[in-house]
């Protein structure tokens, strides 16, 4: 007998500012007669973050920008194990909610009132984690360039090594994730493969790519710590500006930069075409989520 597969869903705590702080969005589902956070199942091969943004839009009619990963909850639904990934999301637009058979009402409440309104303890736990967060002032995607073949097979200068077919495919996948953040700027290390990794994002968002030497890996005779410090300083300055940014750097830079931003030693190794969602409060790195 085949093992029963689980259900993977994603959603968000969608918030908007008020004169007294923030309020969050809950949805009412007539089928279950409950108040809950907007969420839904992943489609085939869909990234959980993409699913979270899509489901929030479908259930609550909010266009929202993800910021911080919140606790993942696990429970059983219709006899099957279910996992739901959540992100804090800033509401940026709405199309005008229309009730239907899946969701017939939407309400906006203070986090404390929402904790008292939701029908399930796991929703209350996610809301409590959101309420404990400092206010996010900056969001950033930090990615490593996608696959660019092998250095030993490239006869030209290494900075000119281009993406291969695998790398271009991944660059297009990354563009859909980068677009979720609605960045105002795209920054890249000077290597050709880094710039090309952001090319699909630039085309999708109609943004130029700014080349930034502070994101480059060490040159001969240069200390890795020097590059890590320069990258961390540049990322901090970008976060302080309050603009949402997507940046592409290199494998010998990202781990050291993240160590300095977090103030701790950890495994920040980033595979080619991988990346991180960073959230800042001022110039303090509040949270990071591995893509």
TrEMBL record:
Pfam families: His_Phos_1, NUDIX. InterPro entries: His_Pase_superF_clade-1, His_PPase_superfam, NUDIX_hydrolase-like_dom_sf, NUDIX_hydrolase_dom, Nudix_hydrolase_domain. The keyword Endoplasmic reticulum does not apply. Residues 5-131 form the Nudix hydrolase domain. GO terms for molecular function: bis(5'-nucleosyl)-tetraphosphatase (asymmetrical) activity. Keywords: Hydrolase. GO terms for biological process: AMP biosynthetic process; ATP biosynthetic process. Signal peptide: none annotated. It comes from the Bacteria. This is NUDIX hydrolase. It comes from Micromonospora endolithica.
């Amino acid at each position: 007998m085949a093992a029963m597969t689980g259900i993977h869903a994603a959603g968000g705590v969608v918030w908007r500012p008020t004169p007294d702080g923030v309020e969050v969005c809950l949805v009412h589902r007539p089928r279950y007669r409950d108040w809950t956070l907007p969420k839904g199942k992943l489609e085939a091969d869909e990234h959980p973050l993409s699913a979270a943004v899509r489901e929030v839009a479908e259930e609550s009619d909010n266009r929202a920008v993800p910021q911080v990963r919140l606790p993942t909850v696990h429970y059983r639904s219709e006899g099957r194990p279910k996992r739901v990934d959540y992100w804090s999301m800033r509401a940026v637009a709405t199309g005008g909610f229309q009730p239907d058979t899946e969701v017939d009402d939407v309400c906006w409440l203070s986090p404390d009132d929402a904790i008292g309104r939701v029908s399930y303890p796991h929703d209350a736990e996610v809301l409590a984690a959101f309420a404990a967060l400092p206010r996010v002032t900056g969001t950033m995607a930090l990615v490593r360039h996608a696959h660019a073949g092998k250095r030993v097979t490239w006869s030209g200068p290494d900075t000119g090594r281009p993406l291969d077919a695998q790398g271009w495919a991944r660059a297009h996948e990354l563009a859909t994730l980068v677009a979720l953040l609605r960045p105002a700027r795209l920054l890249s290390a000077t290597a050709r493969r880094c710039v090309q990794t952001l090319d699909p994002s630039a085309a999708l968002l109609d943004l130029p790519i700014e080349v930034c030497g502070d994101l480059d890996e060490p040159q001969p005779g240069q200390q890795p710590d020097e590059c890590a410090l320069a990258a961390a300083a540049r990322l901090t300055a970008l976060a302080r500006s309050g603009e949402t940014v997507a940046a592409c750097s290199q494998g010998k830079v990202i781990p050291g930069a993240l160590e300095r931003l977090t103030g701790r030693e950890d495994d920040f190794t980033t595979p080619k075409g991988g990346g991180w969602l960073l959230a800042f409060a001022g110039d303090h790195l509040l949270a990071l989520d591995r893509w």
